[in-house]
Amino acid sequence: MEGGDIMFSTLFVTIIAPIVVGVILTLFSHWLNNREK
Q1: 8-30 burial, b for 16+ CB within 10 Å, e for fewer?
Q2: Could you tell me the end-to-end alpha-carbon distance of the chain, in angstroms, rounded to an integer?
Q3: Where are the domains of the chain?
Q4: pLDDT at position 1, please?
Q5: pTM above 0.85, yes or no
Q6: Rounded Cα gap, residues 1 and 26, in angstroms
């Protein structure tokens, strides 16, 4: 069971992490663009 949990967490990190980072960067860039105007 522990091996499966490690595999699942690794899969979770490799799929979810880039999505979260992409969303944060998108929101941050929008915030910067709105702030400059």
Answers
A1: eeeeeeeeeeeeeeeeeeeeeee
A2: 54
A3: 1-30
A4: 56
A5: no
A6: 37
In this structure, what token pair is assigned to residue 14?
């490799």
* Cα–Cα distance, 4 to 20 (Å, whole number): 23
| pLDDT value at residue 29 | 97
**How confident is the chain (37 residues) per 10-residue block, as mean pLDDT?**
80 94 98 88
Please give the single-letter amino acid code of residue 20.
V
Q: Is the dihedral of CA 15, 18, 20, 26 positive or negative?
A: negative
Name residue, tokens 């105007």.
37
Radius of gyration of the chain (CA): 16
